[in-house]
UniProtKB/TrEMBL annotation, chains A, B, C, D:
PANTHER family: ATP-DEPENDENT 6-PHOSPHOFRUCTOKINASE 3 (PTHR13697:SF52), PHOSPHOFRUCTOKINASE (PTHR13697). HAMAP family: Phosphofructokinase_III. This is Pyrophosphate--fructose 6-phosphate 1-phosphotransferase. It catalyses: beta-D-fructose 6-phosphate + diphosphate = beta-D-fructose 1,6-bisphosphate + phosphate + H(+). Its cofactor is Mg(2+). Mg(2+) binds at E103. It is found in: Cytoplasm. NCBIfam families: PFK_mixed, PRK03202.1. Homodimer or homotetramer. It comes from Streptomyces stramineus. Substrate binds at T126, I127, D128, R163, M170, G171, R172, E222, R267, H273, V274, Q275, R276.
Amino acid sequence: MRVGVLTGGGDCPGLNAVIRAVVRKGVQDYAYTFTGYRDGWRGLLHGRSVPLNIPAVRGILPRGGTVLGSSRTNPFTQDDGVARIRETLTKDEVDALIAIGGEDTLGVAARLHGEHGIPCVGVPKTIDNDLSATDYTFGFDTAVNIATEAIDRLHTTAESHMRVLVVEVMGRHAGWIALHSGLAGGANVILIPEQRFDLDEICGWVTSRFTSSYAPIVVVAEGAMPRDGDLVLKDAAAQDSFGHVRLSGVGEWLAKEIERRTGKEARTTVLGHVQRGGTPSAFDRWLATRFGLHAIAAVRDGDFGKMVALRGTDIVRVDLGEATARLKTVSAARYEEAKVFFG
Amino acid sequence: MRVGVLTGGGDCPGLNAVIRAVVRKGVQDYAYTFTGYRDGWRGLLHGRSVPLNIPAVRGILPRGGTVLGSSRTNPFTQDDGVARIRETLTKDEVDALIAIGGEDTLGVAARLHGEHGIPCVGVPKTIDNDLSATDYTFGFDTAVNIATEAIDRLHTTAESHMRVLVVEVMGRHAGWIALHSGLAGGANVILIPEQRFDLDEICGWVTSRFTSSYAPIVVVAEGAMPRDGDLVLKDAAAQDSFGHVRLSGVGEWLAKEIERRTGKEARTTVLGHVQRGGTPSAFDRWLATRFGLHAIAAVRDGDFGKMVALRGTDIVRVDLGEATARLKTVSAARYEEAKVFFG
Amino acid sequence: MRVGVLTGGGDCPGLNAVIRAVVRKGVQDYAYTFTGYRDGWRGLLHGRSVPLNIPAVRGILPRGGTVLGSSRTNPFTQDDGVARIRETLTKDEVDALIAIGGEDTLGVAARLHGEHGIPCVGVPKTIDNDLSATDYTFGFDTAVNIATEAIDRLHTTAESHMRVLVVEVMGRHAGWIALHSGLAGGANVILIPEQRFDLDEICGWVTSRFTSSYAPIVVVAEGAMPRDGDLVLKDAAAQDSFGHVRLSGVGEWLAKEIERRTGKEARTTVLGHVQRGGTPSAFDRWLATRFGLHAIAAVRDGDFGKMVALRGTDIVRVDLGEATARLKTVSAARYEEAKVFFG
Amino acid sequence: MRVGVLTGGGDCPGLNAVIRAVVRKGVQDYAYTFTGYRDGWRGLLHGRSVPLNIPAVRGILPRGGTVLGSSRTNPFTQDDGVARIRETLTKDEVDALIAIGGEDTLGVAARLHGEHGIPCVGVPKTIDNDLSATDYTFGFDTAVNIATEAIDRLHTTAESHMRVLVVEVMGRHAGWIALHSGLAGGANVILIPEQRFDLDEICGWVTSRFTSSYAPIVVVAEGAMPRDGDLVLKDAAAQDSFGHVRLSGVGEWLAKEIERRTGKEARTTVLGHVQRGGTPSAFDRWLATRFGLHAIAAVRDGDFGKMVALRGTDIVRVDLGEATARLKTVSAARYEEAKVFFG
């Protein structure tokens, strides 16, 4: 049995831990051999592979990124995409595929299996934690730790200068990183994409915080939007050096608006890619490792068209198709729960 | 409504986050007042309390330890223990108690409620993660992070000198910290209290690791024992400076035995109290905060005799009596899962 | 003897460590009493003080920011500034002042001592490390550690996606943070204010890095400028939401230019205030503590008009006037030394 | 020109950074080639080498340990040691040697150069920072950071349980790690090898600390000794499992003595190898990198028999013979300076 492995989409701490676990268990317990494909589905389209064996996965557990490289290439938007994938698999004598990725990568795996009969097992990866079929995805805990540490650091600066500090964190469609790091870091306002925000309300919290002689930290997910969304688009639009209209981040826009409305100095920190790089947290290494062990076990069982998922403390298998069907967003109740700390 | 709050047992990162969340929500949403009792049940026996209000909980979220102090005092082993507690509660006009602690502390709360009708709500705390009613307890993730970081650091020393490095971590009755940090840190042997270990097998893994030109890391829970348990007791017994027989740790004993049997140099690191001190991880702050919010909500609902618990990503209420009835240990299947990385 | 203490300018990890050391030694060894002034020189102008004794400095060693608050108020630009300061000192019966701050704060102390005979001792503070009289200032090591950790994290993202990552760090007039964190983090280009940069040269390094199948990290100090400086001003100017012209950061400008010229995707991370907040590194706590001990010893010796400074591993006293006379910038030789790692 | 490189003695964060800098500058600026010798002088005795070029040093900057391996082998205690080294150098066509190590390794280099005319340049390495010719050695700052973080964590446990916590840190002959981490961590007692300690005095500080309702942290270097040194030897001697007399650490002995004399519970943490492993701090990477650049420049200049050293912020060259002649210990004045924080 020869198994192909690929990683797709944005990079995420824990990818290497999955790869290592798949290979260790596959080789030792099942005597499988492996082929690693370069840069996600692109590697399968172009037949670009790397050897994947026990020496190749030594020492990669604590390393961020992915030794296989990644891309956002989608074979279904390419000419003869599926045929070329099938050709590569035949040529390489690969019997099954493990695809590690987010909604897009797993969506491709679901169709390759469902519509074309290619034996695929999926491993969910999204730093935003927004896949509904699993309690958590690896990478999320690392991102939350990094954002929380940044908030910890910003508290002292906020207070020494009595300034508003706005921290923009990742989360285009779901506010999990903002919610968890905001709660863990003791933020005074948390803004998420799931709930349009009201500038007057925010300025109320900010002012009330200053009243008690403390300075406020505002955590905002990059995808958060004001009640009147057009406002941002219009105000933040500015010509960049190429003469194109450019939309600057919500964090910077928010700081300016707070400054204008409250008269208090405000500053922004955009954490950006720092949140998704570097060594994974212990939780993410543990989760990624267990995902890897259970993915190769699914291959062994011939249980294709499935994705591994965390439920409580158990790893289960769910249908690949359903797995990516629905975005897991922050519920109104969970956001309400956090509001006791606002202001 | 006035609510008493106490923390009992060994300290654990996240205790202050619980206290803060209880008080913030209690004051703001329910207009409750609070009394903090010093040093666990001892404070109730002796009527030693501290004021607990919003200023008192400011800034404590990221701080380890407990601002209320702790002890292992059990009122049921004291003369008139229950009567004295009742007296304190009456004098202080306290209507309900929130007890944050482990098996012992919660066991007392269960009896005070069940046998004596004192309205109690429990919040589980055990750094060892060995309470069966909840997926996780706060403090555990912090301890696993610290142990994992230590293992990361030890890898380079092991390899530069081709030595065996034994790391003794917490876990007297359950091997969760050893299992999680061992998996996350890429240990080559993990030993837990749930499974008696075999020295020959360990030496086999150690030797096989050296064969592939790498040096082994052995993670051992403080409560792990060899197949022939008497062996440890006899060998490790040594007179201390007071002339008493003293049992040194399993880590040091193990290093000596491995050295003797394999001829390879072996060294021990005992992480000790470092694992339970300092600022909580983001996960632990988040979990402790949510436990606090839900505990005070249970008080509000008059839902006494309950303990808050994590199930998946939800906080639920379970019966205090059942909550502490059974130790949550590492199952044979979970330990077996990890063994693919041994050697 | 009563000694006044104040902190001025931007906040910096280690300020509290200085305050603690001054008070501990002053009280215990010399039986002095202390008055803390709020928000730098502003506190002296308005007679706003806080008690400063051993209980007040307990536990502040590891905390960032300053318990005394800070401001950029300059008494020489205020009506009757010096007279009001003298009045406050007389009213409070303060015999000497310890001023902890950067160029501005220490410049005021130098004039108050030199021109008005007020007994002052200075403690240098600049996160940018640009004071010529001392080998290092506290806060710098912490900032370099934070920037280096961010660069470490960005390497994996850069390589997984083959992107250029630009990291903008602090340093308006001196490139010490960029130089040290760039060297420590293994950056492929380091740009500092002392040396105008050449976009073509940068693009050459970037391209050469990609040629060897790696992705480049560019570290740029916020004050770095291209050979043709006007270019930045013109291009980056954009109207903000108030209609004012607003200069966006050099980091973002650089990423766009690199993208445009090399055709490679480029992203920017602006570390901002995260670099100056939070707990000080061990080196900064040690340096700040020793500065504090030696500042109060200078007061004891009646050695006013002096600033404490680090020379090798010794703390010495230098003239306050000279201390701030010259900016310590990165020499051409030191920058040249780092260039072997470019590209 | 072909240059040999070796690392000797105990491992130390920063060794890889030196190797990388030597090779980068040697190849790029001088067109040199390199031979890496395995396991210190042992590699030269047995002719065991590894290729050392730019690909070989990629990515090693942030990694602890040494890619060349290490040993404590001394060629002067081996039969024909010098002749065999000369033979290896001739066979490999190596024109000069860079030896990175501590007193022993550099002592060998000094004799090889001075007595046998072999062109050697030394780079100082000692985690204990006890070489007199240089202000700092790399590895020291990392060790101090790790010890300080541990002390930070232990404070909360000490206070929550009102216990004495003894932390044993590295330092057999010099107390630098204890002094710096003790000052940075806010320890209440610091004990170093340079000053015999008095148990009564220690117990006085411990008791005074409890009086002010805080719990004491005692930092002790592994080489610290009581006034009556024999006391430790006698008391701590205990038969190990092989029947040999075994000397347990000073930390554990101290905890027992404090417990016995003050009646307060005391616990010990022995940090051990964790202090010397893992990724180097930013300072150590910067220092190690600059040492490497200057060592290869010395080779270029034909300036053999020299060691690079840090003086203030400059790298200088000192005579190899003198460099290791004297141990740099903590002076009485520097220890006295720290005492204001005791108790």
